[in-house]
Amino acid sequence: MQQVKQPAGRTLPITFVVTFLGFLDTHLLIPVMALYASALGASVGIIGLIIGLYSVTNTPANILFGRLIDRVGYKIPLIAGLVGDALSMFLYSLCRVPIHLALVRILHGTTGGLVGPATMSVTADYSDRAQKGRAMGFYIRNAIPVDFSIGHRPYRS
Known about the structure:
By secondary structure, this protein is mostly helical. The protein is built from six helices and no strands. Helix 1 packs antiparallel against helix 2, helix 1 runs parallel beside helix 5 and helix 3 runs antiparallel to helix 4.
C-alpha cells in the first residue's frame, strides 16, 4: 500500500522549524562548552577533545544513519534523534567530571546524526521534482546558519 503524502505547503515549513530546533541546541553550546569543561576540572587538551567529540561522532553517524533512514524511513529516526538531543541537554546538567561530559558529547553527536539526514529526507520526499534542489537549500541549509548566528549572538562583545 502506497502512503499518501500531505501537500508540501505545510510539511516543508514544519521541517524547517524542526531542523532549526534540532540544531539550535548544538550551536548554543559552542560558546560555553570550553568554559563548562574547564569548570569541571578538564585540562586544555581534554577540553579540546571534549569539544571535538561531537563532530567525531556526528560525522560518521550522519553517514550511517543516512543509509538507515533510506531503508526504514525518516519518522522514527527523526523522533529518536530529537529525543536523544533533548536527553543530551538534560544529561549535560548532570555532569560532575570531564568524563561524564565526554560521554554526553558522544551521545549528543550520535543522536544528532539522526536529525540532519532525516530532515533532508523529508524535504526530498515532499518537494516537487523540479524544485528539489531549491527546497533542500532553503529548508535545510538556511536553518543551520540561522542557528549558528543565534547561538553566537549573545556572546559577542
